[in-house]
Amino acid sequence: MLHDYALAASVYPQRLFRDCGFVHVGSAVQDNARTVYVAVPKDGLATLQQIAQGAPHAIQEIQDGIQALDTIALAHAAPREPFESLGADGSLVEIVLHGQPDVDGAPAAAGAATIDSVTAVVSSSGGTIENEWIRRNDTATFVPARIDEGGLAEVLQHNSVRICQPMPRLRQIPAPIPSGQLPLTFTLSGRPPRSGVPPLKVAVFDGGVDADRDVWQGRVVGCEIGSPVPHGNSRAHGALVTSAMLYGHLTGQVLPPPANLDITHYAAIPQEGRQHDLQMYWLLDTMEKVIRSNDFDIVLVCIGPDLIVTDDHVDRWTSTIDQLSFEEDVLFVVAAGNNGELDATTRMNRVLVPADTVNGIAVGATDNPTGTTRASYSPTGPGRTSAQILPTGVAFGGAESEPFIAVDNDATPLLFQGTSCAAPLVVHGLANAATRLGLEYRTPTVLRCCAIHFADRARGQDPDHVGYGHLPSDYPEIDYTAAHVVHVLYEGQTTRDEVDVMAIPMPDGMAAPVNLRITVVSTSEVNPSDAGDYVGAGLNITLRPDTTVYTFTSPTDDKERKSLSLTRDMHKVVELEAVGWKRSAQPDTKSWTVQSKTEASRRAGGKWESVQVINHKLTTAMVGPRIELQHLSRQRAVLTRGTPPLKWTMLVTLECPPGTELYQSVRAQFPTLQPHVITIEPEAGTDIEATE
According to the lineage, what is the superkingdom (predicted)? Predict the structure, then answer.
């Protein structure tokens, strides 16, 4: 374990570990303490002892590495709670193995000899390994096994075992709220025109849907995968998520025009036979295969393992969808779970896997369509490093007193409550955003940035409860804005070790105050075995609100400094420079509060967070404000070079007091910025009914 000050990558004892032959195979950060898992050669600890004894004469890098060490201990796994009583015939558990060095000394997944050793321990107590279901992810190896209580105790003593926990099972599928008080059916509003903008392509893996029913208006394709077992709750749940994506929360008997979506609904749950026993392994494998072989824009995940997020381990579900998001350029929208009423002191009310995604949107719920307060069943954060603010946001999920209303396959109402209502409602909103953005700008990163930037925030709400706020169901700000407000969208990719500079379009002479809101979103590859250093790339953000303001340092006392404007304080600048005062190389920066929960994130300035939100009020007239983005990358807790450029999206909102003609002033002074205009035309051959 490292001292709490040694959280930054720059303090990692890389040289010390290398000289001792230690190989980094994983990490975790918990309660501001960083645990690093290393594979140690036979003489590694003796080498460390020799180096420590000669520390006073060692180079500074070695001394710093020794000082960073707090404790050294043999790694042993601890059982996850709650561990139900294991049956005499053995219960299915998941054993996660540490990585180990390969023949070249590089970190790798556990080899055959290690797996055989663990298998021997399990077999000695009468247990068995499900060999065909062993999976590897980065340096971690996931081994399903059937063991009894005696076998569990033996497994936990094996040095290669990182975690042993009950085999993750499918979350409980919520049942509909009885709808006897709504004896009605929905009717279609007529054949709706399709937008000239191609629809978003969405995949959902759920309970299935009768895709050929008129109620879905040709927007849904149904597919069966595996051997799903027909089940009333699962079929109703499948209809719910489909309805919520297409129509949102229903408030009348006539269905509104469907959102601009093409939905492929894979009937996947529940599975029978062996797939049922290990269905979360099977389902994740199947989802990955389907997503890699198709071209989806969004994947909705309302089902998943009934597994609470922890700080010391990243589940394979989470790391797989994060890596898929990065590699396949797809946005995952994940329901956060319905365990918010469980015990908070033991953190049983924390978001469920894979809602700890860093590249997706995790959705909690409100019990009011326009409210910003967490519904009691909606789970809470925090997340972990790289995505501390969880859930990402909230949306209406219904309550028994005010249910979420959807339409079933037969056009009758479905009443539900849960984050399985809220997450597809967010997808419904993203479809509206995509239509407004047009084909050129509706990338997964842009959609994610819009959802966070335009979320409705209520003062005093705990980010652990509502994230960044109530996520929109529509986005009128994209193509309409008031005269005193300007929204500017930036997209780019930043090369490692280079700094991208973006001007903020502040018109000359614009009177203060001006409220500035900046949201930066990036999508990164991940390090699945490193819960403490999970994201592989990040952005160091610098805000320079006035590029005429510099810091001047006294020639006689470097602690005596003055911030002066080259224009407003021109005479004072000339006077000081004449007597030897030195001007800083760059304009002054302005700090802001990083909205994160852990010491690690705060010390890193938020640069490893996949979402960074800046709120700043410009209280004096500013000249040429700008934002600078610097790409940083890391692997195995060490800063790296030569990595691919990091893609990002940034949304900037400037807001002046009402009555200010900010929008027109920006257009006049910054002609390279073009208003976003999207013309929506019906497809050829579509009948449009004229209305007055």
Answer: Bacteria
